Amino acid sequence: MTAVVKPAQIVAVKGFRDVLPDESARWRLIEAEAFEIFSRYSFEEIRLPMAEKTELFARSIGTETDIVEKEMYTFTDRGGTSITLRPEATASVVRAAIEHGLITADRERRLFYCGPMFRRERPQKGRFRQFYQIGAEVLGRDDPVVDAEIIILLRDLLDRVAARGVRLELNSLGDGRCRPTYREHLRSFAAARRERLCANCQRRLERNTLRILDCKEPQCREEMAGAPVVVDHLCVPCADHLASVRRLLDGAGVSVDLNPRIVRGLDYYCRTAFEITAEGLGSQNAIGGGGRYDELVAALGGPPVAGIGFAIGLERLAMVTEAPTAELPRTAVFIAPLGDEAWATGLAVATELRAAGRRVELAAGRRSLRALMRQADRTGARHVLIIGVDELTSGRGTVRDMERKADHPLSVDLGATGGELAAQITRLGGTAT
Ligand SMILES: [Zn+2]
Ligand SMILES: [Zn+2]
Q: What is the pTM of this model?
């Protein structure tokens, strides 16, 4: 006889985790608030695939970024195509909008999404390799009003989920006209410190100078602390745009701090860039951000229309919200059939009550009434419907009101239809004192 070997347990992949019922119930509340806000601002939902051609992210996010260089889940599928699990959703939204003709030069589109993204980062507090984002994009608008509107929407959303200690920070990244001049200033500043920068930054110096400001190496941060900032080098239209956004936000009573150090780690941003930071999350305190990307749609083969959007990390938002702990729904009726003969009636009654909108739990197995009552107690059910031999014979089930600990069992007509049955149970529960 061979020994029985217990199979080894399989656990989740590092950085990938399960969202268990207590947490998912809270997420659902946050998502519901977000969806409500999106609706008020005339956004429509788009559901996107998890995987895209790798080229989409290389072309939009930029090949010199940490995301594309180090963090993407990229693989070659059996057909030989290079595929990547989406590290963010803006590129996908734009790709989908172009592919389905959602944007034309004279029509704006407002789209929101919610779902998992994938980046192979070092796992740390509130950061996972599969993480969730709620985000929105407006395509086809280049005016400062929409920038202000997006930031006001964010403020609404943060207020609505009672996010604690969050701040909105704003910057301008300039555009194709003024950024090259700024880049030259930055390049000479960095070149003077070349030897003290990390190998990556030395390489970025010529090819992608702005990215040096994004480096997370402490010595690079220190060296670049006094570097010139782009807001000091904006062209007149970019400066006007930023001034308008700030004036509009002021007028709307939304407080935003100017932070010239915001660079955003993606190539496609221009002009307005913003971040949401929260207290108590350590050095990586951003919970979301976004900005304007006026060249992206055209760069991905679409019409020359502007765009702006944002994304918030759901895990990190949940960490700073005081949204009420979601109450898991409570079982209304626990059905306790005693013995095999009662199972069919139990199932029929459960189906009737569920059709009438009640949350029902149906016990099975051959257990004593005492064991069933203990089980019912654990579910927090208000009513227990007992179906034993006597009940089957008479066609009248016995109801026990768990809240009032009713000593005198009351009975209901087992042959009644769902609504009637539910009404009988509720009525009995209400009067059994
Ligand atoms: Zn560096
Ligand atoms: Zn400019």
A: 0.87
